[in-house]
Amino acid sequence: MFEILAVIYPWTKSLHVIAVITWMAGLFYLPRLFVYHVERGEQAQVDTLFQTMEWKLLRYIMNPSMIAVWIFGLMLVFTPGIVDWGMVWPWTKAVAVLGMTWFHHWLALRRKDFVSGRNRLTGRQYRLMNELPTLFMIVIVISVIVKF
């Protein structure tokens, strides 16, 4: 069973990287939309526009990308000879991926706050939170490339 993963490894890795890029784009963009929503979304028409944009980004780009990242990532983990769990890098990458997944779900909850009219965060707070995926990305890239 696991031997087939070795055969399709280049395809799995390619699809994983593509999914990561699209997921990261959403993780960077959705908090920025929240900043604009908080700062310019007082009018009902503008609020509705932002809600539509946020929902579509999450539903059609971010959710499928996150699922693909997890599927292809787990396929890479189970590919023989790829991951040495005796090293530190797989663990730091795993923690950062879990952090990005938490952030994804946190953003989904904030979107629901906007829909229900219960958003209490400021544009500044969303700007600060927008830095989290960058930190996770740095940990992941250094972990995978340097393999300490």
Structure write-up:
- The structure is a single chain.
- By secondary structure, this protein is mostly helical.
- It has one domain (2-146).
- It has 6 helices and no strands.
- It has helices spanning 2-7, 9-40, 44-77, 89-116, 123-129, 132-146.
- The longest helix has 34 residues, at 44-77.
- The chain is elongated and about 55 Å long.
Features:
mainly alpha, single chain, 148 residues, elongated
Radius of gyration, in Å, reads: 18 Å
Strand percentage lies at under 5%
> Per the principal axes of the C-alpha atoms, what is the gross shape?
elongated
Ranges where pLDDT stays below 50 over 5 or more residues in a row are none
Question: What do the pLDDT scores average to?
Answer: 96
Structural class: mainly alpha
Helix content: over 70%
Beta strands, count:
0
Compute the number of helices: 6
Main sheet characteristics: none
Distance between the termini: 29 Å
Q: How many independent structural domains?
A: 1
Helix and strand element order: HHHHHH
List the helices and strands and how they pair.
Blueprint: H1 2-7, H2 9-40, H3 44-77, H4 89-116, H5 123-129, H6 132-146
What's the short version?
The chain contains six helices and no strands. With 148 residues, the protein is mainly α.
